[in-house]
Amino acid sequence: SLSDRLTATFKNLRGKGRLSEADVDATVREIRRALLDADVAVPVVREFTAKVRERALGAEVNEALNPAQQIVKIVNEELVAILGGETRRINLAKNPPTVIMLAGLQGAGKTTLAGKLSKWLKAQGHSPLLVAADLQRPNAVKQLQVNGERAGVPVFAPHPGVSSEFESATGDPVAVARAGVAEAKSKLHDVVIVDTAGRLGIDAELMKQAADIRAAINPDEVLFVIDAMIGQDAVTTAQAFNEGVNFTGVVLSKLDGDARGGAALSVASITGKPVMFASTGESLDDFELFHPDRMASRILDMGDVLTLIEQAEKNWDKGEAERMARKFADQEDFTLDDFLSQMQQIRKMGSMKKMLMMMPGAANIRQQLENFDEREIDRVEAIVRSMTPHERVAPKIINGSRRARIAKGSGVHVSEVNGLLERFGQAQKMMKKMAQGGGIPGMPGMAG
Ligand code: GDP
Ligand code: MG
């Protein structure tokens, strides 16, 4: 995954304070690979990474995040923006019925979506009508009727219930669509969903039929349904449908599969149209509003890292960080109070173990992490609290009898006090090294 691959990059970047061109390029290269792995179309990847690179180079130094995290954050923001920012809702007509037309290749999931969408709308208090304007496939009308029945939504078809009469393109889909909308009006349905025919590939005849239906019923929404597994073909397909029927929104289907969802980015980027819904299975309930932010992390395959970035930013105590930075700059001594304060900062960011496990590169220290006990922070706190102020800034004076007193005061064994002092000594050494290296670490206390 991208997390794994960024590990190396993160390593090189750790401890650096600003984004150099080389840092940015190294990270952007990994982002490019992740996008290609997610099947984002090549020209889209090229344009996208160029934009990210430009933004990253101009980015201000963010003290809560290390450079690679900053770039990931920029990438995420750009992905969300292209995918439509906020989830877009259906445009409801001022004068009902709201007419929704479905378009897309055969097998994309239109007829299934018609059932899902109608069920969803019905649950929200609408009274939808489904219209079977796919007269191309022998079983298409029947399939919509089955879905309508499951959804508890009526279906308008040329000869309702007798699908065998439509074994070829005998009916006129444009006339059926028009009659269906008229039926919705007369029966006071406030939404009408028109299912249309698809082909296995783009062809002129199919596109003309879809365009004719669009012209005849003047829909409020034309939803382009696209299979998330389509991969690199997403661009040509989306372009053809965008030119052919000028769709208003995109539905991504079969997101329950392995697809990382690159098609969403390709389609949205090429057409500028928002992705509105996600279809995630064969049952009518496998349907949800599309969330650009969730899709962005799926495409990046970095949900965990994004959560970490969010938490780090939210919980980063700016005052405390600045105090530490000043301390290092002044070459002041790192005290047990500082040690405790660092641990408390980390705890503020959430479960320490969980957080550490999310860090790219955690694989290297996974064994240690698994043995890590969060209650350890409580013990450290108790032990430090049992020390006198003088002991905390000058731990060298903590001799045997003081150790025994501290252990007794904090309710731990003397060996735990010894262990703490030993770890503190290591942290102190590390902090000194870092101060000489001229900078604070991206995550204080991480290496402690
Ligand atoms: P249409 O030709 O565009 O009308 O596509 P259909 O609605 O007939 O769907 C084609 C096939 O894909 C059917 O077997 C559906 O059950 C299946 N399908 C549709 N949507 C989804 C989905 O979100 N997930 C999965 N796993 N299968 C789906
Ligand atoms: Mg169909």
From TrEMBL:
Keyword Nucleotide-binding: yes
Highest rank taxon of the organism: Bacteria
Catalytically driven reaction(s): GTP + H2O = GDP + phosphate + H(+)
InterPro entries attached to this UniProt entry: AAA+_ATPase, P-loop_NTPase, Signal_recog_part_SRP54_M_sf, Signal_recog_particl_SRP54_hlx, Signal_recog_particle_SRP54_M, SRP, SRP54, SRP54_GTPase_dom
Record-listed E.C. numbers: 3.6.5.4
Binding of GTP, residues: 104-111, 195-199, 253-256
Coiled-coil region: none
SRP54-type proteins GTP-binding domain mapped to chain residues: 274-287
Keyword Transcription on entry: no
Class of the enzyme per the UniProt entry, highest EC level: hydrolase
Main subcellular localisation: cytoplasm
A Pfam family per the record: SRP54_N
Protein location: Cytoplasm
Keywords assigned by UniProt, alphabetized: Cytoplasm, GTP-binding, Hydrolase, Nucleotide-binding, Ribonucleoprotein, RNA-binding, Signal recognition particle
Subunit structure: Part of the signal recognition particle protein translocation system, which is composed of SRP and FtsY.
UniProt function note: Involved in targeting and insertion of nascent membrane proteins into the cytoplasmic membrane. Binds to the hydrophobic signal sequence of the ribosome-nascent chain (RNC) as it emerges from the ribosomes. The SRP-RNC complex is then targeted to the cytoplasmic membrane where it interacts with the SRP receptor FtsY.
NCBIfam families: ffh
Family: Belongs to the GTP-binding SRP family. SRP54 subfamily.
HAMAP family reported in the protein's UniProt record: SRP54
Record's comment describing the protein's domains: Composed of three domains: the N-terminal N domain, which is responsible for interactions with the ribosome, the central G domain, which binds GTP, and the C-terminal M domain, which binds the RNA and the signal sequence of the RNC.
Descriptive protein name: Signal recognition particle protein
Organism: Arthrobacter silviterrae
Name of the coding gene: ffh
